[in-house]
C-alpha cells in the first residue's frame, strides 16, 4: 500500500511537470522530491497509526469432526460431498450385528427380571396365606393344648387328693397326661411351621421390597442396560449434528471407524449466517483498535469489491507468547519471534451470495476517525479500493 502512495505521487509529479512544462533543474526536482518525502511521510505516518492495516487477512470457520459413538465397520455412506444436509440427516451407517445381539440379550434379561419380580409378588401373597394358615393352626393347637392340660390337671389333682377313693384311676390320669403331651407336641410343630412360614415370607418380602423410584431394583438395573444397548444400536446410524455440508469425504464401506477423537471419520462444516475475517495487525496498532470500529475488507477472490464490517474483538492472547507445562525449557529463540495481534471483523455483507468458498483471504483495514486531524481515512479508503481494482490483474498485498 505504501508503494501505491509513492507511485501515485510520482505519477502526479510527472503529469504536473508535463502539463505545465516545468523545467527539470536543480530547484524543481529537489523541491518535488523533498516535498513529496515530507507530505507522503506525514500522510503515511498518520494513516498507518490511525487506521491499522492488515496485510494478511483470512476468513476462519469452525469444522466439526464426526466421531461415532460406537466402533465398527462402515456399512454404507449416504452423504454426498459438499451437498447441504439438514440436522439429523444420515451421514453413514455402521454394521450393527453386535449391537443388535446386545439389545436382544438386554431385552430378554429385562423380561425375565419382570417375570421373576411378578412371581415374587405372587409368592409373597402365597407366603402370607401360608403364614396365616399356620397361625390359625397354632391357635387351634394352643386351645387343644390348654384343654388337655386342664383336663390332665383336674384328673391328677382329684386322684392325688382322693387317693383310693378317687373317681379317676391311675390309667385315666396317664391317658390324660399322654393326651396333653401329644397336644403340646402338636403345638410345638405348629409354632415351628409358623416360624418357617414367616422366615420364607421375610425372604420373599426382601426381594420384592427392594425398590428404587417405585420399581424393582433388578428390573430398574436391567432397564438401564437395555436403554444403553438401544442407544448403542441407534448410534450405529451416524447423523448430521446440524445444518451444513460434509466435505472431502474419503470414507467408504468397509472402513473401520473408532470412537477415538484422534481419527475422525469425516469433517462436517456447520452452516453459519455470519462469516468472520481475522486480520493480522502490528502491535503498535493495538491502542487504535477498539471493538465497534468500522472496518473494510478486500478479498483476492472478489476483485473490485470492498466489504464493510465491524471490528468485533481483538483476541486477548498471541500464540508467540504461549508457554505450556512440559519437560522442555523455554528457548531464547522463541522470544525473538515477533507476535501480531489478531482482530476479528464481522462483515455486513453475506459472502454466500458471492459463491465464495470458506477460508478466502485478502486484506483489511480498521477505520478510526478519532484523532485523525489530517483525515487520512479518505486516503486509506482510496488506496484500499485501488488495491481491490489491481486484483483483477494480480492479488497484490
Report on this model:
With 397 residues, this protein is α+β, with helices and mostly antiparallel strands. The protein folds into three domains: 50-61 and 272-390, Efflux pump adaptor protein, beta barrel domain (Elongation Factor Tu (Ef-tu), domain 3, Beta Barrel), CATH 2.40.30; 65-94 and 236-266, OB fold (Dihydrolipoamide Acetyltransferase, E2P), CATH 2.40.50; 98-230, Helix Hairpins, CATH 1.10.287. The protein is 46% helix and 19% strand. It contains seven helices and 15 strands. A six-stranded antiparallel β-barrel has the order 1-11-14-13-12-15. β5 and β6 (215-216) form a beta hairpin. α1 runs antiparallel to α2 (28-50) and α3 (97-162) packs antiparallel against α5 (217-234). The termini are close together. The mean pLDDT is 84.
- Overall mean pLDDT: 84
Largest pleated sheet: 6 strands, antiparallel, barrel
Strand percentage lies at 15-25%
Cα(first) to Cα(last) distance is 8 Å
Taken from the alpha-carbon principal axes, the silhouette is rod-shaped
Strands, count:
15
* CATH-derived topology of the largest domain: Helix Hairpins
Class inferred from helices and paired strands: alpha+beta
CATH top level class name of the largest domain: Mainly Alpha
- Approximate helicity band: 40-55%
CATH architecture of the largest domain: Orthogonal Bundle
Count of DSSP-assigned helices? 7
Quick structural gist:
With 397 residues, the chain is of the alpha+beta class.
Give the SSE map.
Blueprint: H1 2-19, H2 28-50, E1 53-60, E2 64-66, E3 72-77, E4 90-94, H3 97-162, H4 170-208, E5 211-212, E6 215-216, H5 217-234, E7 237-239, E8 244-247, E9 256-257, E10 266-270, E11 276-281, E12 294-299, E13 307-314, H6 332-335, E14 341-347, E15 361-367, H7 377-390
Antiparallel strand pairs: 1-11, 1-15, 2-10, 3-4, 3-9, 4-7, 5-6, 8-10, 11-14, 12-13, 12-15, 13-14
Helix pairs in contact: 1-2, 3-4, 3-5
Amino acid at each position: 500500500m505504501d508503494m501505491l502512495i509513492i507511485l501515485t505521487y510520482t505519477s502526479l509529479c510527472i503529469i504536473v511537470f508535463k502539463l505545465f512544462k516545468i523545467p527539470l533543474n536543480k530547484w524543481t526536482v529537489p523541491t518535488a522530491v523533498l516535498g513529496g518525502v515530507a507530505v507522503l511521510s506525514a500522510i503515511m505516518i498518520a494513516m498507518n497509526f490511525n487506521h491499522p492495516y492488515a496485510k494478511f487477512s483470512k476468513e476462519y470457520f469452525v469444522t466439526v469432526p464426526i466421531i461415532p459413538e460406537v466402533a465398527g465397520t462402515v456399512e454404507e455412506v449416504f452423504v454426498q460431498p459438499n451437498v447441504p444436509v439438514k440436522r439429523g440427516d444420515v451421514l453413514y451407517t455402521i454394521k450393527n450385528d453386535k449391537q443388535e445381539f446386545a439389545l436382544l440379550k438386554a431385552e430378554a434379561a429385562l423380561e425375565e427380571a419382570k417375570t421373576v419380580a411378578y412371581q415374587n409378588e405372587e409368592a409373597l401373597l402365597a407366603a402370607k396365606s401360608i403364614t396365616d394358615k399356620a397361625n390359625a393352626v397354632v391357635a387351634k393347637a394352643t386351645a387343644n393344648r390348654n384343654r388337655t392340660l386342664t383336663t390332665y390337671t383336674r384328673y391328677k389333682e382329684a386322684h392325688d387328693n382322693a387317693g383310693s377313693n378317687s373317681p379317676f384311676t391311675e390309667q385315666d390320669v396317664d391317658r390324660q397326661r399322654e393326651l396333653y403331651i401329644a397336644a403340646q407336641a402338636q403345638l410345638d410343630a405348629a409354632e415351628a411351621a409358623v416360624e418357617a412360614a414367616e422366615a420364607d415370607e421375610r425372604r420373599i418380602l426382601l426381594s420384592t421390597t427392594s425398590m428404587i423410584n417405585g420399581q424393582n431394583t433388578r428390573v430398574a438395573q436391567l432397564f438401564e442396560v437395555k436403554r444403553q444397548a438401544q442407544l448403542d444400536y441407534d448410534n450405529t446410524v451416524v447423523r448430521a449434528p446440524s445444518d451444513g455440508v460434509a466435505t472431502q469425504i474419503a470414507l467408504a464401506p468397509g472402513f473401520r471407524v473408532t470412537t477415538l477423537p484422534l481419527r475422525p471419520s469425516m469433517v462436517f462444516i456447520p452452516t453459519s449466517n455470519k462469516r468472520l475475517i481475522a486480520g493480522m495487525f502490528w502491535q503498535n496498532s493495538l491502542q487504535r483498535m477498539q471493538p465497534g470500529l468500522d472496518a473494510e475488507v478486500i478479498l483476492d477472490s472478489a476483485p473490485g469489491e470492498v466489504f464493510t464490517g465491524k471490528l468485533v474483538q481483538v483476541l486477548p492472547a498471541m500464540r508467540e507468547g504461549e508457554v505450556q507445562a512440559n519437560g522442555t525449557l523455554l528457548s531464547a529463540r522463541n522470544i525473538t519471534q515477533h507476535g501480531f495481534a489478531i482482530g476479528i471483523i464481522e462483515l455486513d455483507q453475506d459472502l454466500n451470495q458471492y459463491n465464495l468458498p470458506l477460508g478466502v483471504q485478502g486484506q483489511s483495514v480498521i477505520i478510526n476517525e478519532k484523532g485523525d486531524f489530517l483525515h487520512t481515512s479518505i486516503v486509506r479508503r482510496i488506496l484500499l479500493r485501488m488495491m481491490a481494482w489491481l486484483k483483477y490483474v494480480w492479488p497484490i498485498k
